[in-house]
Amino acid sequence: MYLIHAALRAPAPMAQLPSECADFVRGLADSEGPVEHVSAHPQAQPDPVLGVYLLAASLGEAERRTESLCRRALQEVPALRGWTVARVGAPLVAPYYERLLTAASGLAGRNRPGPFPST
Length: 119
Prior knowledge:
This protein has helices spanning 21-28, 59-76, 94-105; strands spanning 2-9, 35-41, 49-54, 84-89. The longest helix has 18 residues, at 59-76. 32% of the residues lie in helices and 23% in strands. With 119 residues, it is an alpha+beta fold.
């Protein structure tokens, strides 16, 4: 399963992503292949983001299918007309995993210069 983010650009400054956006996109997903969940992040910067969780054979396929699904939604859902797809891709989660690794090693916060504490 992949999580793919699709950033959507508003048609005008201060335009708000419709609150039902995730439901609209999820409703169109049945013909696009296995989509498990869609979530909306309307406050994301610089553009609102849709998080699409889907099953795919590869990351590239997941990104292509997410972009296709979002473009279709922007054409077919009246509340989304005028919005555009700004970018599509897997989100980077490196900071999360870095925190897990440093916490597990007992070196939390040691990823910066400085003397190592003596034991």
